[in-house]
């Protein structure tokens, strides 16, 4: 009996390894598909709302897709202009930050603390930070090189939502199975929609605040805040780094501290207070799981995989929790706050 169980586990692990290897080799196809899926999930409430208001499904689809394309085109234009200017000025910002490091080293030496400026500058390399931010935004943009395919996939997915419930009804006569599938789909849709709205709201606050402070490329850092808000805890801190550094060389240390305080306040208020209440129970992940998810999905699907890592992990967590046999795995992925909420 033990040998049978051991063989079962070995075969299961081998199957998982083979599937992951297949996903990695087919990432060029899978990444646009996942991106299309997330866009379709986020747009589906608007599509359903227009249909409920009496618009024919074809007209509702055209309105939703056309509005999305206009929004995307405007965002892409603004990001492209900002990225081009930012990339051209990276060396200039790097030189100014290096000068700040030298000044900081002199101040610490006066206080009796030896901090070699060159070693510190190499350890906290501002150019590498700026290049990483630029490559992350360009990585998202590269997905849209297959924009026509993504758009077509989104259209077909939205059209499929109307007949999806009918297909579930035809799958099985077991009422419990139908409710189980519908519950999973509803939870995933609610999570993605609410997370996108909260992230959009976060980006808007960052944009307005940085524009008022006078930080260069405020819109670029707002887009980065929107994207990285999908990564709890770690994301907002990563998004803060380039904005703080740019503000430091542009407006001085006082403004940089103000920007740093702004990001901390956003993380505390939105990330720790508003989001848990809006998102509901059981949708938290432990910080360790967040970090490991970034590494795993980044390795599997590249830069876009890192940005989609938490939504993908949350979706897997929702599916695991709805199955009694795998619920224990979902609980292991939970954050401390989620566990406390469930116990209460």
Tell the overall outline. Answer: globular
Oligomer type: single chain
What is the residue-mean pLDDT, rounded to a whole number? 77
- Terminal Cα span: 40 Å
Instruction: Give start-end ranges of low-pLDDT stretches.
Output: none
Count of DSSP-assigned helices? 15
Structural class: mainly alpha
The succession of helices and strands, N to C, reads: HHHHHHHHHHHHHHH
Quick one: how many beta strands? 0
Instruction: Report the radius of gyration as a whole number of Å.
Output: 23 Å
The percentage of residues in β strands lies in under 5%
> Major sheet: size, sense and barrel closure?
none
User: What portion of residues is helical?
Assistant: over 70%
What does this structure look like?
The chain has 344 residues and is mainly α. It has a domain at 31-159. 86% of the residues lie in helices and 0% in strands. Helix 4 runs antiparallel to helix 6 and helix 8 (175-213) runs antiparallel to helix 13 (309-321). The longest helix has 39 residues, at 175-213. The two termini are 40 Å apart.
Write the layout of secondary structure elements.
Blueprint: H1 2-25, H2 27-52, H3 57-88, H4 90-110, H5 117-123, H6 126-143, H7 147-171, H8 175-213, H9 218-228, H10 234-251, H11 253-279, H12 287-307, H13 309-321, H14 327-333, H15 336-343
Helix pairs in contact: 2-3, 2-7, 2-8, 2-12, 3-6, 4-5, 4-6, 4-10, 8-9, 8-11, 8-13, 9-10, 10-11, 13-14
């Amino acid at each position: 009996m033990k040998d049978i169980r051991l063989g079962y586990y070995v075969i299961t692990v081998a199957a998982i390894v083979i599937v992951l290897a297949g996903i990695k080799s087919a990432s060029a196809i899978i990444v646009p598909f996942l991106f299309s899926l997330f866009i379709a999930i986020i747009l589906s409430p608007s599509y359903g709302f227009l249909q409920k208001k009496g618009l024919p499904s074809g007209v509702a689809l055209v309105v939703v897709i056309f509005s999305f394309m206009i929004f995307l085109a405007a965002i892409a234009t603004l990001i492209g202009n900002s990225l081009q200017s930012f990339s051209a000025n990276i060396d200039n910002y790097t030189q100014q930050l290096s000068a700040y490091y030298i000044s900081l080293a002199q101040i610490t030496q006066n206080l009796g603390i030896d901090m070699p400026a060159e070693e510190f500058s190499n350890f906290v390399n501002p150019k590498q930070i700026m290049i990483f931010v630029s490559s992350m935004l360009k990585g998202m943009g590269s997905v849209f090189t297959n924009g026509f395919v993504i758009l077509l996939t989104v259209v077909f997915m939205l059209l499929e939502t109307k007949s999806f419930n009918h297909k579930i009804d035809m799958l099985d006569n077991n009422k419990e199975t139908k409710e189980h599938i519908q519950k999973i789909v509803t939870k995933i849709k609610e999570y993605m929609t609410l997370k996108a709205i909260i992230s959009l709201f976060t980006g808007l606050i960052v944009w307005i605040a940085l524009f008022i402070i006078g930080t260069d490329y405020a819109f670029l850092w707002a887009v980065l805040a929107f994207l990285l808000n999908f990564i709890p805890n770690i994301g907002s801190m990563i998004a803060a780094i380039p904005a703080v550094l740019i503000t430091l060389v542009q407006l001085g240390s006082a403004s940089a501290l103000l920007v740093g305080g702004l990001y901390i306040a956003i993380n505390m208020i939105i990330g720790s207070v508003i989001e848990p209440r809006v998102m509901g129970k059981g949708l938290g992940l432990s910080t360790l799981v967040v970090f490991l998810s970034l590494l795993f999905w980044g390795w599997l699907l590249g830069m876009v995989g890192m940005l989609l890592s938490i939504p993908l992990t949350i979706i897997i967590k929702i599916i695991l929790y709805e199955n009694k046999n795998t619920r224990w795995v979902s609980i292991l992925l939970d954050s401390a706050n989620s566990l406390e909420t469930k116990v209460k």
